[in-house]
Write the structure tokens for this entry.
Amino acid sequence: MTQAPHEFDMSRLPATRRQLLSRMGTGLGMTAMAAMLGSETRAAGINPMAPKQPQFAPKAKRVIHLFMNGGPSQVDTFDPKPYLTKMHGKSPSQRLRTERPTGSLFKSPWKFRKYGQSGIEVSDLFKRTAEHIDDICVVRSMKANVPNHEPSLMLMNCGDSIFVRPSMGSWINYGLGTENQNLPGFIAMCPGGYPIAQTQNWQSAFLPGAYQGTYIDPSKPTDQIVEHAKNARNDLAAQRRQLDLLKRLNRVHAAERTDAGDLEARIASFELAHRMQIEATDAFDISQEPAHIHAMYDTKKNKHGRYYLMVRRLIERGVRFVQLYHGKSQPWDSHDNIAGAHGRLARECDGPIAALLTDLKQRGLLDDTLVLWGGEFGRTPAVELPKSGSNSGTITGRDHNHYGFTVWMAGGGVKGGHVHGATDDVGWSAVDKPVHVHDLHATMLHLLGFDHEKLTYRYAGRDFRLTDVHGDVVHDLIA
Amino acid sequence: MLVRPQHAVALVILAVTTAPGVAQVDIEKAKREHWAYQKIANPTPPRVEHADRVHDPIDAFVLARLEANGLTPAEDADRRTLIRRVYFDLIGLPPTFDQVEAFVADTSSDAYAKVVDTLLASPRFGERWGRHWLDVARYADTIGYDGGGRQRKFAFAWTYRDYVIRSFNGDKPYNRFVVEQIAADRLGLGANDPALAGLGLLTVGRQFLGNVHNLADDRIDVVTRGVMGLTVQCARCHDHKYDPVPTADYYAMYGVFRSIEVPEPLDMPVVGEAMGTPEQRKAYEAELAKRTKAVDDHLVAVHAEVVKEARDRGRDYLDLVSGKRENIKNMRRGLRDHYAFVWKKAGAPNPIPDELIPSLIEQGAAIRFEHNRRFFNQKQRDRFNTLRGKIVELQLDSQGAPPRAMVVTDGKPFRPYVFERGQAGSRGENVDRRWLSVLGGDKFKDATGRLELARAVTAPDNPLTARVWANRVWMHLFGEGIVRTPGDFGSRGQPPTHPLLLDHLATRLVDNGWSTKRLIRAIVLSGTYRRSANATIATIQRDPENRWLARQNRRRLAFEPLRDSVLAVAGRLDPRLFGRPVQLFGKSPSNRRAVYGFIDRQDLPQTLRAFDFASPDHSTPRRLETTVPQQAMFMMNSPFVMQLADAVAAKSKPAGDDRIAAIYRIVLSRNPSIAETVMARSYLGESPDEEAWSRFAHTLMQSNEFAFID
């Protein structure tokens, strides 16, 4: 029971900074600094963000979560339903209760075609992404708990739809630390503002604040993207002079004190901050990319292309977990005019997704980067009925659906060109090999080298984990 | 980035299966054996060798353990270090240069005690210690997530915050303080008694979209773990795995908190004096009338619309309810139900004869105004919520609005039963509303039992509450508790390093009428508190964690005292006490103390999180303490800090040649050494401009000396 599940345990963690100090000897100065700045050997105990080994050999080292917030429709994207087309306009044989009243079955306005060696069918909404289908593992049998946005976002991000729990990105940083000390280990990007439920989506809850996602609005000018990353008055040279004085003053101060590990850590944090403001700004500065990369992501015409390119730059620099929301609030929530709305949304991200996958692959990053695409739930195959005050009354959209929906993963050790599970004939409910969000989390942690039951944190008398008391690894998704 | 030692413990990862159905902990055995459930003893201070270093019985307890472990206590801290330490610990602000010098020059035997008494009497004391309590109370000014246009801000959370600050300033006996926060409404106080605001402990948490189970759960946690160090919340779904808390105990307490009702903001009692100028009060009244009228107008308009629709579309609805049609466009559920009722009352003829239809529609259109809300569609409901929210917002924004207490009242007593596996739908055995088994399990008899619960929490024979509070007071003065898990006194927490000392402190607390100030005074006057944070290598190697307290612990300032100190040294700290929350960040950040900052639990500023601010969703007896570059970036680059550095530079201006020394005196309350002056000169160059002086002041404000308490 007390077996330590992975490296972040007492036996490897100096019990205190004082022990650490005594172990390192006094006058630790530059040694501590070296540790702070990323030398793995000594950093693993004192630095919450230091890179750490998982419990077993991982297939994935970092994660990109492309969050289609609002809930994309499965039957219009990755879950073809010829029977739905056939039954268009008829009453469903079984009507599952969702947030709003629904009417007759409603066929997809898009054609599906086969792609790749695997011949997996994808709708015309994602024809560019579909070119990578042989690297993609499509999970068509996802399940969540309720048909409402906020609890479903919480479930997808934090593993619990009710209580305030740490987000997946926080757990992963807690387990693995991050490879680049000059950047935050968990970056949550949402252009234009917050998604529904705001900062709760990337909260660290009771985990240390260091594991919280750093929110970034990628639509802002580059130098305003990271909070406090730019000094409005002093250029870097002036700041360097100031920091040199600070360091000298702090050294004199530390020399007069015993047991100075905490003082050294703070000294190092200023050096780190100095580098972070350079590197963070640099990481978001896509102007440094060559023309052919800009062309691939279509950054001139499509601002989403810019965001996806930033994702690649962050991943390349060793950020452990990058989450990109489609946009503020809930863009994919097409209660009305799904043909128009989904069409526009897919036009915005299909090309960039394809470019990102191509780019990761050509840089050899896709092998150990796990890409997750999906929303907090899917949408009903039946049309949403007019409801005064709730929708436009045009009978052209779909309601929320947590009974069955699709996510896909690529890279990071998943089985490419593979379809897992299935919904019923019309695409309403997952019937074959259902995968709950907890199972998805368990599988993702497994790919990252963790037994999800053993990545735990003691809080308020109990050991908590991302999957709480649930979750089974879905081995069929793993290559 | 550094995690302090105490968190190493928290970071231990243990694989524990959480499958339900594990045998419960033996209550009788735990009662007999676990240290925390034993009666608080009144131990005699032990004899020690270093009798000359015993200023207070506290020292005897500490020295005895030091001597037993072969450790020599460190020297006393020098006077400059000591006064800075005690200023930060008691009021969260640094002493000025003059205050330091006066203390250094005061050779009277009670010089230090005078400083301590002055600080304990300062209104700044409650701001510092109140914030510690607000961490426990998971205080915030917003309800958390909600939709449908509902107002997310609390109108009056701040009156609870002010109650807490006033209670610390007035040294309200701790047992009284706790009782008021659980059951002030049951104490027979006047209808407008300021103590009613204490009930905010139960109401300022996250609102979980109004889910009664989670609200009760949150309140159980804040009372049991927050006040008693007992993790009762663990027993929601199954018996506690490690501590003697069966699920029945959880639901016994659930019954008490489930019976709570919270009134609408304008039905909450007015407490304290009216605020604002007469003009502001008048403006408030006028605005309130306007916003109230907007709600009324909306209701009238909706009513007219609904009546019209009921009349014009009566036929559609009758078709719908009689089954003639499956769907109608833009159906209102309320009207459908209403027509179903009308149709049924008429004997439910099907098909409906034509001649009957006009009279059915007549009845269908007879909708009483007070039933209006049943017929809202989503847009109208959202609008209604928004308009009512504006009334709430006015309470928060208008200086002329009277302050009200966020009280609770007792509803109909809920008869609790166990929810099997925590599921509300799975009814288990019935339980009484009663006290925890391990502490006696007495049945509550009066009303919902909330007052009895409060009395039980603070009963003199409850071994937990006094120990937990004495431990936390110690922790805030040493950086470490005697029990290093201040929120968990159960079997999975750490046992006390000095059990006798803990009992001695708890006994003194209770014997001195639960006076927090007297306890603090005794501790800070002890020799143990006054020791230097420096120690010999031998001592550090023998006791690297400083469990035996041969020395003080050096501590890093938390966000609030750090930020408040930046304001204070710049001479810009706005000393006003109390009142509506202010914005700490953004374009024009407030110069009030950080404790008055607006806390949005749904959108907690990243700076606060980066500085390990307590999560407003979890009762937090002790903050984590990490060192990350985002903290440094705030100090380096935030315009707030740089503008205050300008203010320091401006303040130092008349000092002429000695401007370097003047800035040292302002920022660090001391003169610079010769070496420091040389370094400063070389940095500043021959003829520094104002910008350079500001950058220099800014450098000192970022220094470790500024950010740590020795």
